[in-house]
From TrEMBL:
<dbReference type="GO" id="GO:0012507">
    <property type="term" value="C:ER to Golgi transport vesicle membrane"/>
</dbReference>
<dbReference type="GO" id="GO:0000139">
    <property type="term" value="C:Golgi membrane"/>
</dbReference>
<dbReference type="InterPro" id="IPR053958">
    <property type="entry name" value="HMGCR/SNAP/NPC1-like_SSD"/>
</dbReference>
<keyword id="KW-0446">Lipid-binding</keyword>
<dbReference type="GO" id="GO:0005789">
    <property type="term" value="C:endoplasmic reticulum membrane"/>
</dbReference>
<keyword id="KW-0472">Membrane</keyword>
<dbReference type="GO" id="GO:0032934">
    <property type="term" value="F:sterol binding"/>
</dbReference>
<feature type="transmembrane region" description="Helical">
    <location>
        <begin position="293"/>
        <end position="311"/>
    </location>
</feature>
<dbReference type="InterPro" id="IPR001680">
    <property type="entry name" value="WD40_rpt"/>
</dbReference>
<dbReference type="InterPro" id="IPR036322">
    <property type="entry name" value="WD40_repeat_dom_sf"/>
</dbReference>
<comment type="function">
    <text>Escort protein required for cholesterol as well as lipid homeostasis. Regulates export of the SCAP-SREBP complex from the endoplasmic reticulum to the Golgi upon low cholesterol, thereby regulating the processing of sterol regulatory element-binding proteins (SREBPs) SREBF1/SREBP1 and SREBF2/SREBP2. At high sterol concentrations, formation of a ternary complex with INSIG (INSIG1 or INSIG2) leads to mask the ER export signal in SCAP, promoting retention of the complex in the endoplasmic reticulum.</text>
</comment>
<keyword id="KW-0325">Glycoprotein</keyword>
<protein>
    <recommendedName>
        <fullName>Sterol regulatory element-binding protein cleavage-activating protein</fullName>
    </recommendedName>
</protein>
<keyword id="KW-0256">Endoplasmic reticulum</keyword>
<feature type="region of interest" description="Disordered">
    <location>
        <begin position="1020"/>
        <end position="1057"/>
    </location>
</feature>
<dbReference type="InterPro" id="IPR000731">
    <property type="entry name" value="SSD"/>
</dbReference>
<keyword id="KW-0677">Repeat</keyword>
Length: 1180
């Protein structure tokens, strides 16, 4: 709440963000990472503390206030508070009492009982076998006009005024511990077990049905095993109405009794005028009204609704239920633990209804819970779980602590200006806040880390992090308004950061209003400002004459601890239809038996008796229960989290790296030349050794070799292209004259489809959706402008001409269950939109602005946005696939052809029907510097979306046109070979920089080395550190010019395999992540062929990439990879699903070493231009 109060000064309601190097953030991040990594340890600590605080709860609380345990709160408002004696306040009853003391804590001795009975009879007359309802009806009433006659009331005259005979202004009744023995000296004398009698008759009612509880007839009680074992004083109390003759008789006889008993008793009377006059007290016992129940019900309903709605946004069924249960369990543990702590420290919580306590901790707990969940949602999903939890906890822990400190300060302030009952509630809420933060930092943090690690919540957090947006005004000029206007318009969300504090403070004020409901608003406000205090402090100093008595309980403290059930019974006697009464309480007359030792023999125990009883009788059971709970939780966690435990404990306490490199078993004798992969973890590799191998990365990297027609013969080469369908069921291999289709699940061949012989590599080869076929049909687009549709089920193919006048240079495919659209660009700079119309394919020309003659264009499909991107030399056009109109044109740096990639945040459907994204990112190589440019577009206002629609279309309120988008650019030097992941991460592989040492080789030349006929000789040289053997079949003139230089370089010391490194770059909001790791941790592995340049690179799942590294395959994983089928909106639209080494190497070789950039710029630019280079030869 403090951030909202500071909004006019700070200009923002957001909490301050600590820098990454701040010591607080570093400490909290380190703790969060440790707690997430050691889930079982963290859970065991939290469960053990919870068990320690929850187990004693039933032993420390009881519904009987007289047995040494704390009293449980009920469904009533109760209070006993002093009032200021002002005109207009009339007392309903008068309360007079005497306290009889012997030696310290020896009031239950028989001589004290006999002395108290004598004093009682002197004050009230004979009380043996007291039964006022049997008073004779012919007793003559006293003369009320003569005050002297009150001193000489006969027992019969006294009894007719008793309240049991009718409630009048002259009624009276009394409480006395001697009533346990019917006020009979003979019964006291015959009783050999005084303490046993006192405990046996503690629930005995008087003649007016007021229970003789220990709390009203004894003072300074000592309990053991919930039984009274000693008392310091016997309390005899007279309660009478204003005109009662018995009250006047008591007052007159007290004066005479002081002198009469001076020889036996030391008498202490009030020495202050205010004490002689008496003090007004108000006793309440107010049941919850219908309005109270409805208000609490609405509060709980709103809180639960908010909790459910917030959790439902996570879009995970199992985890949503699990998190809800976790939140409820945490709140229950916090509340029960707080009750136990309050019982230990003698905090009376019985003044406020029990239903009110959970609402405060519930609202305050939700603040921290959802703040932590939201922080986890905003962390990069590619990070490992411990890093995400640690980062989120480091970002939010200081805000949580500031909120805890703020609420503690607010509650402390309120506790000083409210009634004692409400002050106890403030104390409970303060304790609950601290305890809840502990459970948040242990129990909830551990459970959340497990849920994040699980598939359903991990995916849901990634989805929710991209779907979250805040409603905002469509007019940017209206954003600079007042604080109130911003709140009303939703610019400053009244989130749980202020809701919990408002709920708690509001309830405190409502509770205070219940105790002072008859006051005016001005009186309440003035009393808060200490102008008109309504009640006095109960801690006022006791009479100076009683200091030497060493009372175990002072009279005012004794009065404050009276049980509310007694107040209810007294209210029922004197005001049957009311919920409270005002009593004028006079200072008690204290009698101390002369010769008594009033010095305490032992120090009074600090904790309540129930705590010592628990420690004495339940210690062994408690210890055994703790051991069983810890063992049970440990076994349960080992059973439920066996896979997570293996994952988290495998790092031996070290940080789990974000980037991991895994090397598959060697499956090829020569270089890997082609790769294809599916989202479920299947990787298909084609090597120069003429082997086609299928890998299952998800199951551990097992592989098998494909042979044609289940024979031992290998598949006929060359293999020009291959692809896998979206469901990861079928693999298609394209050779020069046929298409082979392999079932990845059943491991069988489908019928072979013959096609026209052609040894050129196609521009596109992919599956598309057709519900009428068992096996999805294939599309083959050749460079000469021919498209072939292959029906695998029927074994047929249909030929269509797309562009007769020109060669196809780029293809982008948009394939989904509803339609299939292809965008193709030609060498002359024309762009075609190709869509299927029934059994035919229709091609239309797309009108693009600013197209130069014979401009090289390339296309990329964005399935999630139903759009295409047309890449120019220095600009990009976003084209809607339905209207074929340009949505937006983006200016870029000079783009190196065939290097452009695009990814975006998860799209969401807006109310207007348009599609919105929070971010759209381009990644490409600069054509001149060969730097990797990361160009991101996002809304100027945090949390809002950019609408994928034309400027002429209406703009939704929660979405903005691209004109208002914010552009940010990042550059990565020396990127090497790289790829973009759907999780908005860039991953690349490059040579490590060698500092000032001269470059040993230039990879651009090695990739064009001639294919030497003597393969064995070349391979031997590679194993010895040479650089021969490439995979090409022709020798260029440029290669011959550098042959002598390469021979000299072979004589130099060879570079190690460990000179390659993997890098990743991620940008999520304001957070950027950069990490590198060695590609070859085992650099001395002799099984690897020597690598001069990388092979093909292809994306496997959402966070994994496979790259050919000579004759092995390296799998690069960012964070955690689940290898699950992806939806259409996760495809990147690479064009050709298979990425070959020749297609992509041009992106790398230009920038391996700084010293070779200038000399190779022109060569690279020429080699990368598809319009000038010859067709890429097929693999043979």
């Amino acid at each position: 709440m403090i951030w909202y109060l500071l909004y006019p000064f700070r200009g923002t309601s957001e909490a301050p963000v600590l820098g990454p190097a701040h010591p607080f953030r570093v400490a909290f991040t380190r703790y969060g990472r440790y707690a997430a990594r050691h889930v079982v340890t963290t859970l065991l600590i939290s469960v053990l503390v919870a068990a320690i605080l929850v187990y004693p709860f039933p032993f420390l609380y009881s519904t009987d206030f007289a047995n040494g345990a704390s009293n449980l709160p009920h469904h009533v408002w109760t209070d006993a508070r002093p009032l200021e004696d002002k005109p207009g306040i009339e007392a309903d009853v008068m309360m007079r009492s005497i306290w009889v003391h012997g030696s310290y804590m020896q009031a239950l001795q028989k001589d004290i009982l006999f002395g108290a009975l004598e004093l009682q009879d002197e004050l009230l007359g004979p009380t043996a076998n007291f039964s006022p309802s049997l008073a004779p009806g012919n007793v003559e009433p006293p003369n009320s006009t003569s005050g002297k006659l009150d001193h000489d009331l006969t027992p019969g005259q006294r009894d007719i005024f008793h309240v049991v005979n009718g409630l009048t202004n002259q009624s009276w009744f009394f409480h006395s511990p001697l009533q346990y023995w019917s006020c009979s000296a003979d019964e006291i004398a015959r009783d050999d077990d005084i303490v046993g009698t006192v405990n046996a008759k503690k629930s005995q009612p008087t003649s007016v049905n007021v229970t003789l509880r220990h709390s009203i007839v004894f003072s300074g009680k000592r309990f053991e095993d919930r039984q009274l074992v000693a008392a310091d004083a016997l309390v005899i109390t007279l309660i009478h109405l204003r005109d009662s003759p018995v009250g006047r008789m008591w007052e007159q006889r007290v004066k005479a009794l002081t002198d009469k008993m001076a020889s036996k008793w030391q008498v202490y009377t009030a020495d202050e005028a205010s004490n002689k006059k008496g003090q007004l007290y108000e006793f309440q016992f107010r049941p919850m009204s219908l309005q109270d129940g409805l208000a609490l019900g609405i509060a709980y309903l709103l809180t639960m609704t908010y909790c459910l709605v917030s959790l439902s946004k996570l879009r995970a069924v199992k985890s949503k239920i699990g998190l809800m249960v976790t939140v409820v369990v945490q709140i229950c543990l916090s509340m029960t633990s707080s009750f136990t702590i309050c019982a230990i420290f003698k905090i009376d919580l019985s003044k406020i209804p029990s239903f009110s306590y959970p609402i405060a901790i519930f609202s305050l707990s939700l603040e921290n819970v959802f703040r932590l969940i939201n922080a986890v949602i905003l962390t990069p999903p590619e990070d490992n779980t411990s890093s995400r939890i640690g980062h989120a906890f480091g970002e939010t822990a200081h805000i949580c602590l500031a909120g805890v400190a703020q609420n503690l300060l607010v509650l402390f302030t309120l506790s000083k200006i409210v009634s004692p009952g409400v002050s106890a509630f403030c104390t409970f809420a303060a304790i609950a806040i601290v305890v809840d933060f502990f459970y948040l930092s242990t129990f909830f943090l551990a459970v959340l880390s497990v849920d994040v690690r699980r598939t359903e919540l991990s995916d849901a957090l990634a989805k929710a992090s991209l779907r979250r947006s805040r409603r905002a005004s469509s007019d940017p000029q209206t954003r600079q308004k007042s604080w109130l206007d911003s709140i009303l318009q939703g610019k400053i969300a009244l989130s749980t950061r202020i809701a919990g504090t408002i709920v708690t403070v509001g309830f405190v004020l409502i509770a205070q209003w219940h105790f002072f409901e008859n006051e005016s608003v001005m009186r309440i406000l003035s009393r808060i400002l200490h102008v008109f205090p309504k009640y006095k402090d109960l801690s006022t100093s006791r009479s100076s004459l009683l200091v030497d008595v060493h009372q175990a309980r002072s009279p005012k403290s004794w009065l404050r601890l009276q049980d509310h059930e007694t107040a209810r019974e007294v209210i029922h006697v004197i005001k049957p239809d009311a919920h409270s009464y005002i009593a004028r309480v006079f200072h008690p007359l204290v009698f101390v038996l002369k010769g008594s030792d009033r010095m305490p023999a032992t120090k009074e125990r600090i904790l309540p008796p129930a705590v010592y009883d628990f420690a004495r009788h339940h210690s062994i059971h408690f210890g055994m229960t703790m051991l069983v709970i810890v063992a049970a939780v440990r076994l349960l966690m080992n059973y439920l989290l066996w896979d997570e435990l293996a994952e988290t404990t495998g790092m031996n306490g070290k940080d789990v790296p974000l980037l991991t490199v895994r090397t598959l078993e060697i499956g090829h004798a020569l270089d890997v030349a082609l790769l294809s992969a599916s989202s479920d973890g299947h990787v298909v590799s084609v090597g120069l050794d003429r082997l086609v191998r299928v890998w299952d990365v998800k199951s551990g990297g097992a592989s098998y070799v494909l042979t044609e027609n289940d024979e031992s013969s290998t598949i006929a080469f060359p293999i020009l292209a291959m692809c896998i369908d979206d469901e990861s069921h079928w693999l298609a291999l394209l050779t020069s004259d046929k298409i082979l289709v392999w079932n990845l699940n059943e491991r069988r061949w489908a019928p072979t489809v013959r096609i026209d012989a052609n040894r050129q590599k196609p521009e596109a080869f992919l599956f598309f959706h057709d519900p009428s076929t068992t096996i999805a049909p294939l599309l083959l687009v050749r460079r000469e402008g021919v498209m072939i549709e292959i029906n695998v089920d029927q074994g047929t193919s249909n030929r269509f001409n797309l562009a007769d006048e020109s060669a196809i240079v780029s293809i982008g495919s948009l394939v989904n269950k509803d339609s299939t659209k292809i965008m193709a660009s030609t060498r002359e700079g024309r762009t075609y939109m190709i869509s299927k119309m029934e059994s035919n394919w229709n091609a239309t020309i797309v009108d693009l602005p600013r197209v130069r003659e014979r401009e090289y264009l390339s296309t990329i499909a964005l399935p999630g946005l139903a759009c295409f991107l047309v890449i120019h030399a220095q600009s990009v056009d976003l084209i809607d696939s339905h209207s074929q109109k340009v949505v937006r044109s983006f200016e870029t740096d000079p783009i190196q052809p065939k290097t452009f990639r695009c990814f975006h945040s998860r799209p969401r459907r807006l109310e207007s029907g348009s599609i919105g994204v929070r971010t759209l990112t381009f990644a490409y190589l600069n054509a001149y510097t060969r730097d990797l440019v990361v160009q991101m577009y996002s809304s100027q206002y945090e949390g809002e979306s950019l609408c994928v629609c034309g400027p002429e279309q209406p703009q939704p309120k929660t979405c903005h046109h691209w004109e208002s988008a914010k552009e940010t650019r990042r550059r990565i030097n020396d990127p090497g070979v790289w790829e973009a992941l759907p999780s908005r991460i860039l991953v690349g592989v490059r040579r490590k920089r060698l500092g000032k040492s001269p470059p040993l080789t230039n990879p651009i030349y090695h990739r064009h080395q001639p294919h030497i006929a003597d393969n064995n000789s070349a391979l031997r040289r590679r194993r010895q550190g040479g650089s021969g053997g490439g995979g090409g079949t022709q020798v260029s003139q440029q290669q011959q010019q550098h042959q002598q230089q390469n021979e000299q370089q072979r004589q130099q010391p060879p570079q190690k395999q460990g000179d390659w490194e993997v890098w990743m770059f991620s940008q999520h909001g304001k957070q950027e992540t950069w990490e590198t790791v060695s590609l070859c941790p085992d650099a001395e592995d002799a099984r690897h062929l020597y690598v001069t340049s990388l092979g093909p690179m292809v994306r496997i799942g959402r966070s994994s990439i496979a790259v050919g590294f000579s004759n092995v395959i390296k799998v690069l994983v960012v964070g955690q990879e689940r290898f699950e089928p992806e939806t259409d909106d996760l495809h990147l639209g690479d064009g050709v699903p298979v990425v070959s080494s020749r297609r992509r190497k041009g992106a790398y070789g230009a920038r391996n070493n700084n010293s070779t950039i200038n000399s190779n710029n022109n060569n690279n630019g020429n080699n990368s231009n598809s319009s000038n280079r010859p067709p890429v030869p097929a693999i043979r």
